[in-house]
Protein backbone atom coordinates (compact mmCIF):
# COMPACT_ATOMS: atom_id res chain seq x y z
CA UNK A 1 0.00 0.00 0.00
CA UNK A 2 1.19 3.52 -0.78
CA UNK A 3 2.11 5.24 2.49
CA UNK A 4 2.61 8.86 3.50
CA UNK A 5 5.03 9.36 6.38
CA UNK A 6 5.10 12.81 8.00
CA UNK A 7 7.86 13.41 10.51
CA UNK A 8 8.03 16.51 12.70
CA UNK A 9 11.15 17.83 14.39
CA UNK A 10 12.03 21.26 15.80
CA UNK A 11 11.79 23.83 12.99
CA UNK A 12 11.23 21.29 10.23
CA UNK A 13 8.67 18.88 8.75
CA UNK A 14 9.80 16.02 6.49
CA UNK A 15 7.11 14.23 4.52
CA UNK A 16 7.76 11.25 2.26
CA UNK A 17 5.69 9.12 -0.09
CA UNK A 18 6.60 5.42 -0.09
CA UNK A 19 5.28 2.98 -2.71
CA UNK A 20 3.88 -0.52 -2.23
CA UNK A 21 7.38 -2.02 -2.24
CA UNK A 22 8.70 0.39 0.39
CA UNK A 23 10.62 2.54 -2.12
CA UNK A 24 10.93 6.26 -1.54
CA UNK A 25 8.99 8.13 -4.26
CA UNK A 26 8.66 11.74 -3.09
CA UNK A 27 10.25 13.89 -0.40
CA UNK A 28 9.13 17.29 0.85
CA UNK A 29 11.07 19.26 3.47
CA UNK A 30 9.22 22.22 4.95
CA UNK A 31 10.34 24.82 7.45
CA UNK A 32 7.18 26.37 8.91
CA UNK A 33 9.11 29.41 10.09
CA UNK A 34 9.87 30.17 6.43
CA UNK A 35 7.07 28.67 4.31
CA UNK A 36 7.51 28.65 0.53
CA UNK A 37 4.05 30.22 0.17
CA UNK A 38 2.66 27.91 -2.52
CA UNK A 39 -1.11 27.78 -2.22
CA UNK A 40 -1.32 30.86 0.03
CA UNK A 41 -4.34 33.10 -0.55
CA UNK A 42 -3.65 36.85 -0.74
CA UNK A 43 -5.34 40.13 -1.29
CA UNK A 44 -2.81 42.12 -3.36
CA UNK A 45 -2.57 45.45 -5.14
CA UNK A 46 -1.53 45.86 -8.79
CA UNK A 47 1.60 47.98 -8.53
CA UNK A 48 2.72 48.01 -12.17
CA UNK A 49 1.61 46.63 -15.51
CA UNK A 50 4.29 44.86 -17.55
CA UNK A 51 2.91 44.40 -21.09
CA UNK A 52 6.33 43.41 -22.43
CA UNK A 53 6.37 40.54 -19.92
CA UNK A 54 2.69 39.71 -20.54
CA UNK A 55 1.72 40.29 -16.94
CA UNK A 56 1.62 42.61 -13.96
CA UNK A 57 3.47 43.05 -10.68
CA UNK A 58 1.42 42.92 -7.49
CA UNK A 59 2.32 44.32 -4.06
CA UNK A 60 1.69 41.69 -1.40
CA UNK A 61 1.63 41.65 2.38
CA UNK A 62 5.03 42.04 4.01
CA UNK A 63 6.49 44.04 1.12
CA UNK A 64 6.86 41.08 -1.25
CA UNK A 65 6.17 41.53 -4.98
CA UNK A 66 4.47 38.79 -6.99
CA UNK A 67 4.04 38.37 -10.74
CA UNK A 68 0.62 37.75 -12.30
CA UNK A 69 0.79 36.46 -15.90
CA UNK A 70 -1.93 37.73 -18.19
CA UNK A 71 -2.82 34.08 -18.87
CA UNK A 72 -3.78 33.76 -15.18
CA UNK A 73 -6.39 36.53 -15.27
CA UNK A 74 -9.07 37.51 -17.77
CA UNK A 75 -9.91 35.88 -21.10
CA UNK A 76 -7.23 33.94 -22.95
CA UNK A 77 -4.79 36.02 -25.04
CA UNK A 78 -6.21 39.30 -23.75
CA UNK A 79 -3.53 41.96 -23.05
CA UNK A 80 -2.92 42.50 -19.35
CA UNK A 81 -4.05 46.13 -19.57
CA UNK A 82 -7.55 45.03 -20.50
CA UNK A 83 -7.84 42.74 -17.50
CA UNK A 84 -6.41 44.79 -14.62
CA UNK A 85 -5.35 48.35 -13.86
CA UNK A 86 -2.71 49.85 -11.58
CA UNK A 87 -3.93 50.30 -8.03
CA UNK A 88 -6.60 47.62 -8.34
CA UNK A 89 -6.98 45.11 -5.50
CA UNK A 90 -7.06 41.48 -6.58
CA UNK A 91 -7.74 38.14 -4.90
CA UNK A 92 -4.88 35.80 -5.83
CA UNK A 93 -3.23 32.50 -4.96
CA UNK A 94 0.50 31.71 -5.14
CA UNK A 95 1.13 29.01 -7.74
CA UNK A 96 4.94 28.94 -7.74
CA UNK A 97 7.46 29.75 -5.05
CA UNK A 98 9.87 32.64 -5.39
CA UNK A 99 13.21 31.87 -7.02
CA UNK A 100 16.50 33.57 -7.83
CA UNK A 101 15.48 36.96 -6.48
CA UNK A 102 12.17 36.87 -8.37
CA UNK A 103 8.91 36.97 -6.46
CA UNK A 104 6.27 34.26 -6.43
CA UNK A 105 4.03 33.49 -9.41
CA UNK A 106 0.34 34.28 -8.89
CA UNK A 107 -3.04 33.42 -10.34
CA UNK A 108 -6.35 35.25 -10.11
CA UNK A 109 -8.24 32.16 -11.30
CA UNK A 110 -9.63 30.96 -7.99
CA UNK A 111 -12.21 28.44 -6.89
CA UNK A 112 -15.49 29.93 -5.64
CA UNK A 113 -14.52 28.91 -2.10
CA UNK A 114 -11.16 30.69 -2.33
CA UNK A 115 -12.70 33.84 -3.77
CA UNK A 116 -15.35 33.91 -1.05
CA UNK A 117 -12.78 33.42 1.68
CA UNK A 118 -10.66 36.33 0.48
CA UNK A 119 -13.70 38.59 -0.05
CA UNK A 120 -14.87 37.92 3.51
CA UNK A 121 -11.49 38.78 5.08
CA UNK A 122 -11.36 42.07 7.01
CA UNK A 123 -9.37 45.07 5.79
CA UNK A 124 -8.82 46.63 2.40
CA UNK A 125 -5.06 46.56 1.83
CA UNK A 126 -2.66 43.78 0.84
CA UNK A 127 -2.96 40.86 3.26
CA UNK A 128 -2.17 37.19 3.64
CA UNK A 129 -5.59 35.59 4.04
CA UNK A 130 -4.73 31.91 4.45
CA UNK A 131 -1.77 29.58 4.20
CA UNK A 132 -1.71 26.90 1.53
CA UNK A 133 -1.85 23.18 2.33
CA UNK A 134 1.24 21.50 3.72
CA UNK A 135 2.96 18.57 2.02
CA UNK A 136 1.12 15.88 3.98
CA UNK A 137 -2.23 17.39 3.04
CA UNK A 138 -1.25 17.73 -0.63
CA UNK A 139 -0.08 14.12 -0.80
CA UNK A 140 -3.21 12.88 0.98
CA UNK A 141 -5.37 14.66 -1.60
CA UNK A 142 -3.31 13.33 -4.50
CA UNK A 143 -3.20 9.74 -3.20
CA UNK A 144 -6.65 8.98 -1.88
CA UNK A 145 -6.66 5.81 0.16
CA UNK A 146 -2.97 6.00 1.03
CA UNK A 147 -2.07 5.07 4.59
CA UNK A 148 -0.83 8.05 6.60
CA UNK A 149 1.46 7.85 9.61
CA UNK A 150 2.79 10.79 11.55
CA UNK A 151 4.64 11.60 14.75
CA UNK A 152 3.30 15.17 14.69
CA UNK A 153 0.43 15.73 17.19
CA UNK A 154 -0.88 18.76 15.30
CA UNK A 155 -0.92 16.92 11.97
CA UNK A 156 -2.51 13.84 13.52
CA UNK A 157 -5.29 16.02 14.95
CA UNK A 158 -5.84 17.88 11.69
CA UNK A 159 -5.93 14.75 9.52
CA UNK A 160 -7.84 12.81 12.21
CA UNK A 161 -5.42 9.91 12.25
CA UNK A 162 -3.71 8.08 15.15
CA UNK A 163 -0.48 9.60 16.43
CA UNK A 164 2.64 7.46 16.18
CA UNK A 165 4.65 7.68 19.40
CA UNK A 166 7.74 6.43 17.59
CA UNK A 167 9.63 8.18 14.76
CA UNK A 168 7.94 7.32 11.46
CA UNK A 169 11.19 7.49 9.47
CA UNK A 170 13.32 4.40 10.09
CA UNK A 171 17.11 4.22 9.85
CA UNK A 172 17.05 3.10 6.20
CA UNK A 173 14.88 6.04 5.16
CA UNK A 174 16.98 8.45 7.23
CA UNK A 175 20.11 7.19 5.44
CA UNK A 176 18.46 7.69 2.05
CA UNK A 177 17.39 11.22 2.97
CA UNK A 178 20.98 11.98 3.98
CA UNK A 179 22.16 10.90 0.50
CA UNK A 180 19.72 13.33 -1.12
CA UNK A 181 21.55 16.23 0.49
CA UNK A 182 24.69 15.43 -1.54
CA UNK A 183 25.66 15.17 -5.22
CA UNK A 184 26.45 11.43 -5.46
CA UNK A 185 23.99 8.60 -5.98
CA UNK A 186 25.38 5.03 -6.12
CA UNK A 187 24.03 2.80 -8.89
CA UNK A 188 23.32 -0.92 -8.47
CA UNK A 189 26.18 -2.98 -9.81
CA UNK A 190 28.67 -0.09 -9.64
CA UNK A 191 28.93 3.40 -11.03
CA UNK A 192 27.13 6.49 -9.76
CA UNK A 193 25.10 9.52 -10.72
CA UNK A 194 26.56 12.97 -10.11
CA UNK A 195 23.97 15.73 -9.70
CA UNK A 196 25.11 19.30 -10.42
CA UNK A 197 22.48 22.03 -9.94
CA UNK A 198 23.24 25.51 -11.32
CA UNK A 199 21.05 28.64 -11.46
CA UNK A 200 20.32 27.97 -15.15
CA UNK A 201 19.91 24.18 -15.27
CA UNK A 202 20.75 20.89 -13.59
CA UNK A 203 23.29 18.51 -15.09
CA UNK A 204 23.21 14.81 -14.20
CA UNK A 205 26.30 12.86 -15.19
CA UNK A 206 26.65 9.08 -15.22
CA UNK A 207 30.03 7.95 -13.91
CA UNK A 208 30.65 4.37 -15.02
CA UNK A 209 33.17 3.64 -12.29
CA UNK A 210 34.65 0.16 -12.66
CA UNK A 211 32.45 -0.52 -15.70
CA UNK A 212 34.37 2.12 -17.68
CA UNK A 213 37.20 -0.28 -18.43
CA UNK A 214 35.15 -3.31 -19.39
CA UNK A 215 35.04 -4.61 -22.94
CA UNK A 216 31.58 -6.04 -22.41
CA UNK A 217 29.15 -3.74 -24.27
CA UNK A 218 26.23 -5.29 -22.41
CA UNK A 219 27.72 -4.28 -19.06
CA UNK A 220 27.84 -0.68 -20.23
CA UNK A 221 24.27 -0.90 -21.47
CA UNK A 222 23.06 -2.38 -18.17
CA UNK A 223 24.78 0.43 -16.28
CA UNK A 224 23.06 3.08 -18.37
CA UNK A 225 19.70 1.34 -18.12
CA UNK A 226 20.02 1.48 -14.32
CA UNK A 227 21.18 5.10 -14.57
CA UNK A 228 18.15 6.13 -16.62
CA UNK A 229 15.74 4.66 -14.07
CA UNK A 230 17.58 6.14 -11.10
CA UNK A 231 17.96 9.56 -12.73
CA UNK A 232 14.19 9.79 -13.19
CA UNK A 233 13.70 8.81 -9.56
CA UNK A 234 16.25 11.32 -8.30
CA UNK A 235 14.72 14.14 -10.34
CA UNK A 236 11.42 13.63 -8.55
CA UNK A 237 12.91 13.00 -5.11
CA UNK A 238 15.07 16.13 -5.29
CA UNK A 239 12.21 18.12 -6.84
CA UNK A 240 14.56 19.35 -9.56
CA UNK A 241 13.03 21.96 -11.83
CA UNK A 242 13.64 23.77 -15.09
CA UNK A 243 15.99 22.36 -17.76
CA UNK A 244 17.73 19.10 -16.79
CA UNK A 245 20.48 17.52 -18.90
CA UNK A 246 21.34 13.82 -18.51
CA UNK A 247 24.70 12.61 -19.85
CA UNK A 248 25.00 8.83 -20.08
CA UNK A 249 28.31 6.97 -19.89
CA UNK A 250 30.26 5.81 -22.91
CA UNK A 251 27.51 5.18 -25.46
CA UNK A 252 27.34 6.44 -29.01
CA UNK A 253 24.47 8.78 -29.84
CA UNK A 254 22.75 5.98 -31.74
CA UNK A 255 22.92 3.62 -28.76
CA UNK A 256 21.68 6.40 -26.48
CA UNK A 257 18.61 6.80 -28.67
CA UNK A 258 17.57 3.29 -27.66
CA UNK A 259 17.29 4.48 -24.06
CA UNK A 260 14.90 7.33 -24.86
CA UNK A 261 11.78 5.22 -24.37
CA UNK A 262 12.95 3.65 -21.08
CA UNK A 263 13.72 7.18 -19.83
CA UNK A 264 10.34 8.46 -20.99
CA UNK A 265 8.63 5.54 -19.22
CA UNK A 266 10.60 6.18 -16.02
CA UNK A 267 9.54 9.84 -16.07
CA UNK A 268 5.90 9.03 -16.83
CA UNK A 269 4.93 8.67 -13.16
CA UNK A 270 6.12 12.24 -12.47
CA UNK A 271 3.36 14.67 -13.52
CA UNK A 272 5.77 17.62 -13.61
CA UNK A 273 8.48 16.11 -15.86
CA UNK A 274 8.68 15.81 -19.62
CA UNK A 275 11.40 14.32 -21.82
CA UNK A 276 12.06 16.78 -24.64
CA UNK A 277 14.42 14.54 -26.56
CA UNK A 278 18.08 13.75 -27.23
CA UNK A 279 20.03 16.88 -28.14
CA UNK A 280 22.78 17.24 -30.75
CA UNK A 281 25.46 16.81 -28.08
CA UNK A 282 24.06 13.43 -27.05
CA UNK A 283 22.47 14.75 -23.85
CA UNK A 284 18.91 13.88 -22.88
CA UNK A 285 16.93 17.08 -22.36
CA UNK A 286 14.25 17.04 -19.65
CA UNK A 287 12.01 19.89 -18.60
CA UNK A 288 10.34 19.82 -15.20
CA UNK A 289 7.83 22.35 -13.97
CA UNK A 290 8.77 24.31 -10.88
CA UNK A 291 6.22 24.73 -8.09
CA UNK A 292 7.93 24.25 -4.72
CA UNK A 293 11.66 25.03 -4.40
CA UNK A 294 14.04 22.18 -5.31
CA UNK A 295 15.56 20.27 -2.42
CA UNK A 296 19.00 21.81 -2.91
CA UNK A 297 17.52 25.29 -2.46
CA UNK A 298 15.82 24.25 0.78
CA UNK A 299 18.86 22.50 2.25
CA UNK A 300 21.57 24.65 0.67
CA UNK A 301 24.25 23.36 -1.68
CA UNK A 302 26.40 22.35 0.14
CA UNK A 303 24.04 22.07 3.15
CA UNK A 304 23.64 25.41 4.92
CA UNK A 305 24.37 26.16 8.60
CA UNK A 306 20.60 26.10 9.18
CA UNK A 307 20.33 22.60 7.72
CA UNK A 308 23.12 21.40 10.00
CA UNK A 309 21.48 23.13 12.95
CA UNK A 310 18.08 21.55 12.36
CA UNK A 311 19.74 18.14 12.06
CA UNK A 312 21.35 18.79 15.47
CA UNK A 313 17.95 19.67 16.96
CA UNK A 314 16.58 16.36 15.62
CA UNK A 315 19.40 14.52 17.38
CA UNK A 316 18.73 16.45 20.58
CA UNK A 317 15.04 15.52 20.48
CA UNK A 318 15.94 11.85 20.01
CA UNK A 319 18.41 11.98 22.92
CA UNK A 320 15.80 13.59 25.16
CA UNK A 321 13.21 10.96 24.24
CA UNK A 322 15.68 8.16 24.97
CA UNK A 323 16.94 9.71 28.23
CA UNK A 324 14.21 11.89 29.71
CA UNK A 325 14.73 14.16 32.69
CA UNK A 326 18.13 15.46 31.64
CA UNK A 327 19.20 18.96 30.59
CA UNK A 328 20.82 19.36 27.18
CA UNK A 329 23.24 21.67 25.46
CA UNK A 330 24.08 22.20 21.81
CA UNK A 331 27.68 22.98 21.01
CA UNK A 332 28.04 24.28 17.45
CA UNK A 333 29.71 26.75 15.14
CA UNK A 334 28.41 30.32 15.73
CA UNK A 335 26.91 30.40 12.21
CA UNK A 336 24.81 27.34 13.03
CA UNK A 337 23.50 28.82 16.27
CA UNK A 338 22.82 32.13 14.53
CA UNK A 339 20.82 30.40 11.81
CA UNK A 340 18.71 28.58 14.43
CA UNK A 341 18.01 31.82 16.29
CA UNK A 342 16.92 33.45 13.03
CA UNK A 343 14.41 30.72 12.14
CA UNK A 344 11.13 31.59 13.89
CA UNK A 345 9.94 28.89 16.25
CA UNK A 346 12.85 26.45 15.87
CA UNK A 347 14.45 26.84 19.30
CA UNK A 348 11.08 27.15 21.04
CA UNK A 349 9.98 23.87 19.45
CA UNK A 350 13.26 22.27 20.50
CA UNK A 351 12.79 23.30 24.12
CA UNK A 352 9.20 22.02 24.05
CA UNK A 353 10.45 18.67 22.75
CA UNK A 354 13.24 18.50 25.33
CA UNK A 355 11.07 19.64 28.21
CA UNK A 356 13.87 21.91 29.44
CA UNK A 357 15.78 24.93 28.10
CA UNK A 358 18.41 24.10 25.48
CA UNK A 359 21.76 25.64 26.32
CA UNK A 360 23.65 26.98 23.29
CA UNK A 361 27.45 26.98 23.30
CA UNK A 362 29.20 28.61 20.30
CA UNK A 363 32.42 26.87 19.31
CA UNK A 364 34.28 28.35 16.30
CA UNK A 365 36.59 25.32 16.26
CA UNK A 366 33.75 23.09 15.08
CA UNK A 367 32.79 22.87 11.42
CA UNK A 368 29.09 23.50 10.72
CA UNK A 369 28.53 19.76 10.23
CA UNK A 370 30.14 18.88 13.57
CA UNK A 371 27.52 20.07 16.06
CA UNK A 372 27.57 18.18 19.36
CA UNK A 373 24.70 17.32 21.70
CA UNK A 374 25.84 17.03 25.31
CA UNK A 375 24.34 16.97 28.77
CA UNK A 376 24.27 20.41 30.35
CA UNK A 377 25.77 20.91 33.75
CA UNK A 378 23.22 21.46 36.51
CA UNK A 379 23.63 24.65 38.40
TrEMBL record:
<keyword id="KW-0472">Membrane</keyword>
<dbReference type="InterPro" id="IPR012340">
    <property type="entry name" value="NA-bd_OB-fold"/>
</dbReference>
<keyword id="KW-0694">RNA-binding</keyword>
<keyword id="KW-0479">Metal-binding</keyword>
<dbReference type="Pfam" id="PF10150">
    <property type="entry name" value="RNase_E_G"/>
</dbReference>
<protein>
    <submittedName>
        <fullName>Ribonuclease E/G</fullName>
    </submittedName>
</protein>
<keyword id="KW-0540">Nuclease</keyword>
<keyword id="KW-0997">Cell inner membrane</keyword>
<dbReference type="InterPro" id="IPR003029">
    <property type="entry name" value="S1_domain"/>
</dbReference>
<keyword id="KW-0460">Magnesium</keyword>
<keyword id="KW-0255">Endonuclease</keyword>
<dbReference type="InterPro" id="IPR004659">
    <property type="entry name" value="RNase_E/G"/>
</dbReference>
<dbReference type="InterPro" id="IPR019307">
    <property type="entry name" value="RNA-bd_AU-1/RNase_E/G"/>
</dbReference>
<keyword id="KW-1003">Cell membrane</keyword>
<feature type="domain" description="S1 motif">
    <location>
        <begin position="39"/>
        <end position="109"/>
    </location>
</feature>
<keyword id="KW-0378">Hydrolase</keyword>
